[in-house]
Amino acid sequence: xxxxxxxxxxxxxxPYNYGKMEDADVKGGALKPxxxxxxxxxxxxxxxxIEKARFIGKGCVVSIVGTSLLMKEIEGxxxxxxxxxxxxxxxxxxxxxxxxxxxxxxxxxxxxxxLQDIFKKLSH
Amino acid sequence: MKHLFPxxxxxxxxxxxxxxxxxxxxxSVIDGIAQFYSYHYANIHRGAYPLSEEAxxxxxxxxxxxxxxxxxxxxxxxxxxxxxxxxNLAVYNxxxxxxxxxxxxxxxLYVPMKKYMKKLAVGWKIEKAAxxxxxxxxxxxxxxxxMKEAREQSQYLIxxxxxxxxxxxxxxxxxxPDFYAFSGHKIFGPSGVGVLYIKEPERWEPLLYGGGxxxxxxxxxxxxxxxxxxEAGTPPIAQVWGLKLALxxxxxxxxxxxxxxxxxxxxxxxxxxxxxxxAPLGDKRDIPVFSFYWEEVHPHDVATLLGRKHIAxxxxxxxxxxxxxxxxxxxxxxxxxxxxxxEKDVDRFIKELKVIRDGxxx
Lengths: 124, 362
Ligand SMILES: Cc1ncc(COP(=O)(O)O)c(C=O)c1O
Fold this sequence. Notes:
The structure holds two protein chains of two kinds.
Chain A: H1 6-13, E1 26-32, E2 37-46, E3 49-58, H2 61-74, H3 79-83, H4 89-94, H5 105-108, H6 110-122
Antiparallel strand pairs in A: 1-2, 2-3
Chain B: H1 7-10, E1 15-16, H2 27-40, H3 50-70, E2 77-80, H4 83-93, E3 98-102, H5 107-116, E4 119-123, E5 129-135, H6 147-153, E6 154-160, E7 179-183, E8 194-198, E9 214-217, E10 221-223, H7 237-252, H8 254-274, E11 289-292, H9 299-308, E12 311-312, E13 314-316, H10 321-327, E14 332-336, H11 343-360
Parallel strand pairs in B: 1-12, 3-4, 3-5, 5-6, 6-7
Antiparallel strand pairs in B: 2-8, 7-8, 9-10, 11-14, 13-14
Helix pairs in contact in B: 2-7, 3-7, 4-5, 8-11
The structure holds pyridoxal-5'-phosphate.
């Protein structure tokens, strides 16, 4: 789907899984200064399973929608499973077509990268 | 003036509002470079054969053109790769001193100042310092600071003329900088060539050493006494010629550029107000550079959506992170205008901005 499809604009204005989590087991954040986008991700983890995933942030349609749908997708899944996902999974989850805007791929990967950082933290 | 720029023959719908990043190229420059390569090209400063002599003569003629453009002597004009290299050379030579630079600076001046000064003060209002480094035109706010004030406050003055020169001809003797830099590609010329004016060329060192800069190489090395010591290796020969043609173009259209800029600044400000669109950053602008921050819509989204309507604007921090931080915003989108823009371009920009506003902010 086109990145400015109504479907995405609706999520952008009212994203799934949005909000701060005070009692998170683990959190991570990234600032991508080239556009100033910031997202912070919070996870509640029990027995290797992601029970709750939330995020807050400011960003463009692509980064906010991407992170929001990623949070929705990982809830209830095991860390082991989510860890295996490659970046192409972001296209699968969002169904977003960036073929005419390849430079925006970095926006789509913002939440994905923060999540990878969190997994690194968890395994230490 | 679109008819002088061949890109519009291929891309009729284009509304190019990114001249602060790089200007489009007029036909005279493009054709002149092709002619140079076709009929006059050889390496310079080394062949005793006529073709090399001819190319050398053209290269030196270009130096004279730049010198005339700036109001200085040819032997004070060095050709380098771009404004970034030129500014680095200037700051490097003044390293270890206490400096002041403006919060508006492009990273190409800000970062070397941060690296090479012993202490660096940064602010809006010019302060006294051994080295004052300042832009003559902000690439975000379109503001032109007072160069005489900068001269009075400094022992050494470095000026970044990169944004200024595509709009006004600078007359360097009026503020007497120690170094003055700009890039060819932002004044209708080719990329790959930058200019550094050096007030006292005999006094400073080059950044690079190599062929073309030396007189005697043995146990000791002696450098050429003239400006060539700054131009190590084969220079961007055709680009230097292209820059000369670009300055010819600028001077031929100088009055039209000034008139067009002034008219379009007014028109843009008026149209933004009429349509109740957010005002651009900064108060008053001296060059037609308009940057915007909209709380509700990300600059990348604005730029991508405008791009789909063939309107070229830039989004991000425009290599001026300290400025964006000082303004308390993460990024912005920027429309910058030049000779080939007109009221119709502004109207299309405004029209599409309204569509974006209405789509996001409901
Ligand atoms: C004010 C200013 N200074 C310096 C530069 C650097 O120019 P260049 O990238 O050609 O070295 C730019 C261009 O982005 C600029 O806008």
